[in-house]
Design goal:
The protein is an alpha/beta fold and 281 residues long. The chain is 42% helix and 20% strand. It has a domain of 166 residues: Vaccinia Virus protein VP39 (Rossmann fold).
């Protein structure tokens, strides 16, 4: 998908403030069993797979289109290399009716809107009859989708995530439900709502991803002086991003995202949901 994923090395579990409760609900929805064959779609550095392996030891395949993220997974040595696949979740290189479950955590929004239905149809194809698709995704609405899309695109541009700033589309709750049903899934429902509080300050390292990657490529490591320059640049970009967020707020959006601010930071809330759908028998 281009520049962005190859230099994006944050711990997004921490950045998104995922709690033990969040993970507990996600694992309960998946309900993995030792005999299952599971696909961790757009699994990246294996955060989801690691949580599954703490519960039981099913056969887990991880697919992602970023070699750099999969290399992070390989370094952990928690999944055999034969189960780690470089590939696109819009065209998954597995046979029909192969998996008992497919999981996709925060991956639908990584592709353009027109391609998101392709993900659902591919997952439907590779699931066994009665197979389960569990996804954890943003659940925006008509009042806040455009606002959130704009501010994340601005953040991606500041961070040097070129392809991400152009290609990603953040779906509404109704769009996700529609894609489930249009692809043939049954018993579709959202089982959990997480309230996500995006904080520009939590993006401190991410906002200088491009510059940090260049220093590592050129020098091999980051010196104290380099880090001081990166910190200064990141502080500047946090201020720029925060100013942009406030500049596009309307009263309607403020109400939708429950916006408020104080001297230290700005606050607003976005919903994420865990969705479950089943392939018919």
């Amino acid at each position: 998908m281009g520049e962005g994923y190859n230099i994006r090395f944050e711990d997004y579990n921490k950045l998104h403030s995922n709690s033990e409760k969040d993970w507990s609900v996600f694992m309960k929805a998946l309900n993995p069993k030792k005999e299952d064959i599971i696909l961790d779609a757009a699994g990246g550095y294996g955060d989801v797979s690691q949580h599954i392996l703490e519960i039981c030891k099913p056969k887990i395949y991880v697919i992602d289109n970023s070699k750099e993220q999969l290399d992070r997974l390989r370094e952990k040595k928690v999944i055999g290399d034969e189960f780690i696949k470089l590939g696109d979740i819009r065209k998954i290189n597995f046979p029909d009716n192969f998996f008992d479950s497919v999981i996709l955590k925060m991956g639908i929004h990584e592709v353009p809107k027109k391609d998101q239905i392709k993900i659902f149809k591919e997952i439907f194809r590779i699931l066994k009859p009665k197979g389960k698709f569990v996804t954890w995704e943003l659940a925006l609405n008509k009042d806040n989708q455009e606002f959130f899309q704009k501010i994340i695109r601005r953040k991606d541009k500041l961070s040097g995530f070129i392809s991400m700033s152009k290609n990603r589309y953040f779906p509404t709750h109704l769009e996700t439900i529609h894609n489930f049903k249009l692809s043939g899934f049954e018993k579709v429902r959202d089982v959990y709502t997480k309230y996500y509080y995006p904080d520009p300050k939590l993006r401190f390292q991410e906002l200088v991803s491009k510059e940090r990657a260049k220093i590592i490529k050129d020098k091999g490591n980051i010196s104290k002086g380099d880090q001081e320059k990166l910190d200064k640049l990141s502080t500047k970009r946090i201020q720029e991003w925060s100013h942009y967020i406030k500049s596009i707020l309307t009263e309607k959006i403020k109400k939708s995202v429950k916006f408020r601010e104080d001297k230290e930071k700005i606050y607003f809330v976005i919903e994420k949901k865990i969705y479950v759908g089943y392939k018919p028998k």
